[in-house]
Design brief:
By secondary structure, the protein is an alpha/beta fold. It has a five-stranded mixed β-sheet with strand order 3-2-1-4-5, sandwiched between helices. It has a domain at 146-216. α2 (13-21) crosses α3. It is built from 14 helices and five strands. The protein has helices at residues 2-9, 13-21, 31-51, 99-111, 128-138, 147-155, 163-174, 179-196, 198-205, 213-216, 220-227, 231-244, 253-268, 280-288, and strands at residues 59-69, 72-81, 86-94, 121-124, 143-145.
């Protein structure tokens, strides 16, 4: 395990022999020996990640995100338990975030015990393929669209000198604690954008209510910091990239998946619970009472 962490932490197989020789207590290992040991260890980590049961916990949220990785798209699923623990549920390598691949991935999670028939909060970045797959497999589940992605999509249509001001306006609108106030603030900005830039206005209107799902559940003040964006998984993806950036030549799909699984496994052991996890019973109650996708709070 020490060698495994060192390779992931930045000492390449080529460099490990020299590093080991520099430490008197260490005994030398040839590069080929390091490579074989890392392959075995990373293959075991991939198998553990892709096969472990998921019915040993009560789940509160599912976060999905895709990232370009070594010429492909890598989609990772992160689960949050009812007590706030974060776990990597699985990963899938695909050419793009398309509905068919992601739907099959979600069904595979269900076969391992993830409750696809349970009312969960699903947090997405706005990818149409991932969104369609979630609807196809999980049905009318409450989806929280990432407010950060929505804001950045909107301002991307505007001149650069106007973008900071519009970021502040959108962030202030989303910061309202109730659904009614947040929706009215965003509608005012939508009308303003209509006069300024039609494309930006259309971007804001698209899927707007799904960016306010936590507001509609009446849990935004308590849980917005953790679930209003895809930051929980974006940080994982960022750390994954940092741990694998030293690999300059990806030879096979197996190599990509093993490295990703190995890095994710090491990161998962360091995860902390989500912020404000003690408020998660409020989310469970809201979902049980079916307060989703209604405007009654307005």
């Amino acid at each position: 395990m020490g060698l495994f962490r060192r390779v992931l932490g930045g000492i390449s197989c080529r460099e490990y022999e020299a590093a080991a020789e520099a430490v008197p207590e260490a005994f030398g290992l040839a590069r080929s020996s390091v490579s074989r040991r890392f392959i075995r260890a990373s293959a075991q980590e991939l198998r553990r990640l892709q096969e472990r049961r998921l019915d040993d916990a009560e789940w509160a949220a599912l976060i999905l995100d895709g990232k370009a990785f070594a010429g492909d798209a890598l989609v990772v699923a992160l689960g949050v338990t009812a007590t706030g623990e974060k776990r990597i549920l699985g990963l899938v390598q695909t050419a793009s975030e398309n509905k068919r691949v992601i739907a099959a991935f979600l069904r595979a999670l269900g076969e391992r015990g993830f409750p696809l028939d349970q009312r969960l909060l699903v947090v997405l970045d706005g990818s149409k393929g991932v969104h369609a797959a979630v609807r196809a497999v999980l049905g009318d589940v409450p989806i929280q669209r990432c407010q950060w992605h929505k804001r950045e999509n909107v301002v991307s249509y505007l001149p650069k000198h106007e973008q900071p001001a519009w970021r502040r306006k959108l962030q202030a609108a989303y910061a309202h604690p109730t659904y009614g106030d947040a929706k009215r603030a965003l509608e005012r900005l939508h009308r303003e954008l209509r006069l300024r830039n039609e494309s930006a206005a259309d971007s804001l209107a698209e899927g707007l209510d799904e960016t306010l799902t936590l507001h509609r559940l009446n849990v935004f003040p308590e849980l917005g910091v953790s679930f209003k964006t895809t930051n929980l998984i974006e940080s994982v993806m960022s750390r994954l990239e940092a741990r694998t950036r030293r690999v300059t030549h990806w030879r096979t799909s197996d190599q990509k998946m093993r490295w990703c699984a190995a890095a994710l496994g090491v990161m998962e052991r360091q995860f902390r619970r989500v912020k404000h996890y003690r408020q998660l019973p409020l989310l469970k109650l809201a979902l049980q009472n079916k307060l989703v996708l209604t405007n009654s709070a307005a």
